[in-house]
Amino acid sequence: MKSKTHYVVLLLIMVGMLAGGVCGWAFGPKMMGVKFLGDIFLNALKMMIVPLVVASMITGVASLGDIRRLGRTGLVTIAYYGITTGVAVGIGIVLANVIQPGAGFTPVVTELPEMVGKETYTVVDVIVNMIPSNFFEAAVETNVLPLIIVSLVFGGILTTLGKKGEPVIKFFAGLNAAILKLVYLVMMFAPVGVFALVATKLGAAGGGEAFWQELWKLGKYAFTVLSGLTLHAFIVLPLLLMLLGRRNPLKYIFNMLAAFATSFSTASSAATLPVTMRAVEKRNKVSEEAASFVLPLGATINMDGTALYEAIAAIFIAQMYGIDLSPAHQLVIFFTATLAAVGAAAIPEAGLVTMVMVLTSVGLPVEGIGSILAIDWFLDRCRTTVNVWGDSVGAAAVDRLVIRAKTESETRLSEAPG
Ligand code: ASP
User: Is the pLDDT of residue 52 over 60?
Assistant: First the structure.
């Protein structure tokens, strides 16, 4: 995007988000009239997910070239994801124990939404679901993880085919570039889309007064989750960005603002992916090799905000029911919350579904979820934004640790005398 246009659109997106909040607050359910505008924006973003994931993963893997480089990139990426998610869960567990949000809270009895509890997730399910029995079915359902696995293997195979593989790689590289251009067009509509999404969500929740009441009721719980997210987003991740990525966090965050507005208004890392990729590659100048590999994978399995929230919610539910959690139980929560975040789909409120796994692993009542439902739509938007931020920092870290390090050492070698 030409710089000037970019800033104007960014400003309009921020104004749209603010105006959406104010209108949703003031006019409540009446704002449902503009819902279709949000749907148009959301559809446009969702439409790009499958081709973008497939094309960018294949291009990313193919551009890494030799398989050893893929191995190193993969290892650094997974290590980064594992460590940051672990830190996020750790922050959640410490805060929930210190603040004790559930102490003295009476459980709210509500019917759980259909999606919660229907599917019982085990670790084995998460792994089995990675291999699709039908590629197109996975695509139709936007089931991203299996698509990533297949594209990864497919891209790797293409690099071993020599001349025969080249046109196929070029095709996917072209597709990838075209979709990123398409994001540019869709973002022109983002100010209106973001406005409508925020206004209708707040409006559907009953407007400002109802929102305030919900927040007040669940104040201590929401405060704990928001404090954890703030610590992780403003201290842990910027530190990693400076140390591992050698980037200026303020500049990097500024360049990500359009993606953050999209994640906050859509509550979906997957729907935000096209915008994240564009911001990381085009604005923050992270190499295509790193961005196209790290970001689709990150949107699907790296969810720092979700992991942090899963841990706090589980401990909150235990405290609310007066159930004592031993250190061993908390350790189980540590691991299951991490896995629950990996297994959660990158769609709105998916964290609620995998929460069942965390609760049942330590024998906590699943009905406890009923008590946190009222405010979940709001916390979901905040944690999704932290999820996207975590992926973006990961792209910068992998870019510097693997891609640039390798290129620099290659240049040094080729420049060495003799
Ligand atoms: N909505 C989140 C995301 O897309 C997942 C969740 O925590 O519910 O990243």
Answer: yes
| Structural domain boundaries enclosing 203 | 3-405
Span 51-59, mean pLDDT?
Answer: 93
User: Does 165 reside within a domain?
Assistant: yes
Answer yes or no: is 413 within a domain.
no
CA–CA separation, 230 and 390 (whole Å): 12
Distance of alpha carbon 151 from alpha carbon 212, whole angstroms: 45
The alpha carbon of 167 and the centre of ligand 1 are apart by a number of angstroms equal to: 36
Residue to mutate, 262, 347, 392, ligand 1, most ligand atoms under 8 Å from C-beta:
347
Structure confidence at residue 248 (pLDDT): 97
Structure tokens at 14: 């921020």
Average pLDDT over residues 26-30: 90
Atom of ligand 1 nearest to the CA of 349: 8
Residues 6+ apart with CB under 8 A from 208: 24, 25, 26, 28, 202
Q: Is the CB of 299 under 6 A from ligand 1?
A: no
Q: Which atom of ligand 1 is nearest to the CA of 383?
A: 7
Residue 236 near residue 91 (C-beta atoms within 8 A) = yes
Residue 81 and residue 342: Cα distance in Å, rounded? 10
Side-chain half-sphere CA neighbours of 38 within 13 A: 23
Q: Is residue 418 part of a domain?
A: no
Is residue 7, in this structure, part of any structural domain at all? yes
CATH number, position 372: 1.10.3860.10
Residue 379 CA to ligand 1 center (angstroms) comes to 10
How long is the chain? Answer: 418
Closest CA to 23 of 190, 188, 204, 214: 204
**Contact indicator for 290, 334 with CB cutoff of 8 Å:** no
Ligand 1, atom 6: closest residue by C-alpha:
351
Q: Could you read off the pLDDT of 140-198 as tens digits, one per residue?
A: 988 888 999 999 899 989 988 889 999 999 999 999 999 999 999 999 999 999 999 99
Amino acid 2: pLDDT: 62
Q: What's the number of domains the chain is made of? A: 1
Residue 354 token pair: 């995998």
**What is the pLDDT at residue 99?**
95
Q: Is 302 in the pocket of ligand 1 (CB under 6 A)?
A: no
Does the pLDDT value for residue 107 go beyond 90?
Answer: no
CB 384 near ligand 1, within 6 Å: yes
Cα–Cα distance measured from residue 74 to residue 77, given in angstroms and rounded to the nearest whole number = 5
